[in-house]
Amino acid sequence: VNVGLYVSPVASMAEGEDAEVFQGRIESTIQLRISETKNLPPSHELRHGRDSYVIVALDQEEIFRTATVEKTLNPLYGEEFSFLIPRDFRWLSFYVCDSDLFGLTGTRLGKVAIPRDQLVAGTVQEDQWNLIQPIHADSEVQGKLHLTLNVVERLVDTDTTLYVLVVRVVECCGLSAWGVSGLSDPYCQVMLLAPQGRIKSDVKRGQVRKKTVDPYFNESFEFLLDSFSDLSDTILRVSLWHQTLLGISEDVFLGQVNILLSSLTPARTHGGWYLLGPRPEIVEHPPKADLGSLRITVKYSENCIYPLRVYAPLQKLLRESLHTEPITDSALFILSEVYKERASLGRSLVKIFLKLGKVQLLTDPPLSLSPLSLSPSLSLSLLMYLQPTMPSVAFM
């Protein structure tokens, strides 16, 4: 039996060649199953139960939404979803939402949030019940802020020199959306604080940028310093806000950045991109009534993807498997025995054999077979793996 399924890059090189270091990229995948919720709080409206659904979000970016389950406080969703993670993130969140009477808008009842660190460390149980937590606007922040800082000297007269801190708020990206349009009307506030949180300067406010989550500000704010040593115990705070309709409600907090200024040096520009954070000084609201529980299954995986030439020995083994008799002697059969995820294996095999010209995708199901150039026993074995996930394929 050929058991050489793993061939290291070094072992596949010809003798006398220098060992080549293959640079791969990390591809992160999340597989989800949103099973059910139980004991949702009853609605105050004149209807039985709730019309609820679940939104899955990376930070505040929605990536999946279940169907709405109507008129129950114990909805069964039973939906699965998998996706490649397109960017870095801090939280994987599940928002349990209640649809209105007409199904036009929804109210977020609560959430289950899992930090990325726990997913990567593998400390999250795959299938478990999670208490639904209340949502506080002060913690629902996301996005980044780009700003620059410098200290300039200004000569007032022959004997007096003043220092001025110039803060330039350039732009933001990926802010939370709070407007009716699905966007925000953000503006920034800039101030100087003492380490205990006492405000040491005037609060300066920028202009509102309408209907955007990626605002470009390009605004500069100046703070006069008594001496350069004032920066040793000074914190710069830049906060972002969404302007609501005037007089109706308070503006919504979008996030903030706190920067200790003791490391600044005169005549040098400092700056960069900063992740927005919550307001830690806000006292937590008292917990609401029981919001119920959400049952979810989360599987996080990271794969290192190497250049295609690294996989050439494995592809050769798979090609040879197409004509190997008996099938139990083939590398493909051994691979199918040791690999547990049948659906994932089936999708990968389809991609490989499509490239090799051994599989044809059919536009009109059901599954049919053209005359085969591979062994009949292997054909039937492959069908067992491919048919549940790729019903419209035919082997050439």
Task: List the topology elements.
Elements: E1 25-38, E2 50-58, E3 61-65, E4 69-72, E5 76-84, E6 91-99, E7 106-115, H1 116-121, E8 127-131, E9 144-155, E10 161-173, E11 186-193, E12 204-205, E13 216-225, E14 235-242, E15 252-260, E16 270-275, E17 293-305, H2 312-321, H3 331-338, H4 342-355, E18 359-361, H5 376-386, E19 393-395
Antiparallel strand pairs: 1-5, 1-17, 2-3, 2-4, 2-6, 6-7, 8-17, 9-10, 9-16, 10-13, 11-12, 11-14, 14-15, 18-19
Textual characterization of the structure:
The protein has 396 residues and is mainly beta. It has helices spanning 116-121, 312-321, 331-338, 342-355, 376-386; strands at 25-38, 50-58, 61-65, 69-72, 76-84, 91-99, 106-115, 127-131, 144-155, 161-173, 186-193, 204-205, 216-225, 235-242, 252-260, 270-275, 293-305, 359-361, 393-395. The chain is flat. Strands 2, 3, 4, 6 and 7 form a 5-stranded antiparallel sheet that branches. Residues 1-19, 363-381 and 383-396 have low confidence and may be disordered. It has 5 helices and 19 strands. Strand 2 (50-58) and strand 3 form a beta hairpin.
Segments where pLDDT lies below 50 for 5+ residues? 1-19, 363-381, 383-396
Strand/helix succession: EEEEEEEHEEEEEEEEEEHHHEHE
What is the 3D form? flat
The percent of residues in helical segments reads: 10-25%
Question: Helices and strands: which structural class?
Answer: mainly beta
In percent terms, what proportion of residues is strand? 35-45%
How many beta strands in the DSSP annotation?
19
Output the number of helix runs: 5
Q: How is the main sheet built?
A: 5 strands, antiparallel
- Mean pLDDT, to the nearest integer, reads 78
Rg calculated over all Cα atoms: 29 Å
Distance between the termini: 26 Å
